[in-house]
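Project outcomes to date are best conveyed with an example. Our students and postdoctoral researchers have been running inverse folding experiments weekly, and each run begins with a structure described purely in tokens. The record below, which covers 104 residues, was selected by the lab manager from last quarter's runs and is presented without edits.
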């Protein structure tokens, strides 16, 4: 379901890394941080590497804000994308999954 309760066609979605995989060697992020769920976002096919690719976080965020992609509060408030934001977003995703999705 999307944020407004509309069913999503997951066959038309793909996973994008917020901090790109290809810049691991040039960044301060580890492979584990790059692969962390807090660094992944579900986007429309064709929107991932074709438009987002290896752009900076600020450029990706601007493109995502103009798209139909749901941006959670962690991404919305972030001005930079570091290990701190990745960890914070992973915790937010886990909390949301437990309290809202699964209602444990």
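After processing, the design step wrote out the following sequence:
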């Amino acid at each position: 379901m999307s944020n407004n309760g509309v069913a999503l066609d997951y066959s038309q979605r793909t996973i994008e890394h917020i901090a790109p995989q290809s810049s691991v060697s040039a960044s301060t992020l580890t492979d584990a941080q790059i692969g962390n769920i807090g660094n992944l976002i579900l986007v429309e096919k064709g929107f991932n590497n074709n438009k987002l690719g290896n752009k900076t976080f600020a450029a990706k965020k601007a493109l995502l804000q103009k798209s139909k992609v749901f941006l959670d509060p962690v991404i919305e408030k972030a001005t930079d994308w570091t290990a701190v934001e990745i960890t914070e977003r992973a915790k937010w995703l886990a909390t949301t999954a437990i309290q809202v999705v699964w209602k444990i």
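Strands lie at 13-17, 40-44. The first strand starts at residue 13 and ends at 17. The training component of this project remains on track.
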